[in-house]
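Each letter names a residue; the fold follows as tokens. Both lines appear below:
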Amino acid sequence: MIDVYLAAVKLGVIFVPINILYREREITHILGDSAPRAAVTSGELPGQAPVWQAEDLAAEAAALPADPAPPRAATTGDSPAAIVCTSGTTGASEGAILTHNNSREIEEFLLEQNEVAEAAVAGVPDRLRGEVPVAYVVARAPFEPGDLEFRCRQKLASFKIPRAFIAVDKLPRTALGKIQKHLLPKWESGG
């Protein structure tokens, strides 16, 4: 689903992730409250929203000709990028609007740490949570993953805490300097 999120961000579409561990009533409320044009899933969802199967979208995308200039929406750092909803365990679930600036928050926080020269955060599949963030760090000085995790827990929302901090010699980049996250070392969740 990270591909769907990245496509949504690139196109300026607001992305509303739904935790697969939520109960049906919570999912129904989130879908009703956010009124999506479509829900992308690998299974079934309750409610009335049109459902697009992730596998079908991937197959359609693979069949499209390469477009050197895909459409881009006019967005700024303050444009909505995602709505993250609570589970609603204390009442109805509530959504927090994340802007495009929020999507870089983890990397920017890591770059503020003295021992971090460069950082990239990628979403990796997780059996229980769907996806979790993992941080890839080019170190300026030796670092302890536990120390970085502790500092992240002090400043970031719990769902933004990287599940691992992987030291790399360098981040893979294109000729123009863009980080190629798909070339980062694979990480397997234990969960």
